[in-house]
Amino acid sequence: MNDAPLTRPHILDVIQESAARLGFRMSCEERTGALLATLAASKPGGRFLEIGTGVGAGAAWMASGMDASSRLTTIEFNPGLHAAAAVTFFDDPRVELVCADASEWLREYDGEPFDLAFVDWRPGKFYQLDTLLNLLAPGGLYVVDDLLPQDTWPENHPERVDQFLEAWPRAGMVATPMSWASGLLVAAKTASARIP
Ligand SMILES: C[S@@+](CC[C@H](N)C(=O)[O-])C[C@H]1O[C@@H](n2cnc3c(N)ncnc32)[C@H](O)[C@@H]1O
């Protein structure tokens, strides 16, 4: 047995070309993507959120597991990356690509709760964690990656990650840290939790 993904969305080829063209090196690992696809498939009609679109690798994996009535909102701050992802997903009405600062977006969002949030940048992970967790529906899943050392980490990043990990376990969430792929934490919101 190995843990290589059993399937792979074909649009990843296009996404990898965009990443190479733009010099973008932060797309999620394929194992993480495969897990996101499985989790997305477990939420028919689900509402999904991604913080940090990049060029769309995580979104492609999630979209590959989503059914026709599910919706993904993905937030990217960099207009060039957002534009590349928007081209890739132009014909998928399930995917809403937002070009915004996720920190502001999280402060202002007052729409439906989410069934899964993949938090792949700092807002909702290293800060505004409670804000993000309060946007989850009961049973909603919280997924973060890149908790194991990466060669793209800036100098003071290990302290940020340590602080994040020290914040778990926490009330209202059932969490599993996973020393797997780039290092994940997967957590589910308990039914009646309101994060303080
Ligand atoms: C790790 S990458 C995301 C990779 C993507 N989730 C994937 O799976 O391929 C993090 C992304 O967050 C974006 N970003 C940085 N600051 C941001 C902010 N304040 N709001 C939204 N996105 C931001 C970066 O431009 C980068 O594309």
Written account of the structure:
- It is a single chain.
- The chain has 196 residues and is an alpha/beta fold.
- The chain has one domain: Vaccinia Virus protein VP39 (Rossmann fold, 3-Layer(aba) Sandwich), CATH 3.40.50.150.
- It is 33% helix and 22% strand.
- It contains seven helices and seven strands.
- The protein has a seven-stranded mixed β-sheet with strand order 3-2-1-4-5-7-6.
- Strand 6 and strand 7 form a beta hairpin.
- Helix 1 packs antiparallel against helix 4 and helix 2 packs parallel to helix 3.
- The longest helix has 12 residues.
- The model has no long low-confidence stretch (mean pLDDT 96).
- Bound molecules: S-adenosylmethionine.
- S-adenosylmethionine (SAM) binds next to helix 3, strand 2 and helix 5.
Note the main attributes of this structure.
single chain, 196 residues, alpha/beta, 7 helices, 33% helix, globular, binds S-adenosylmethionine
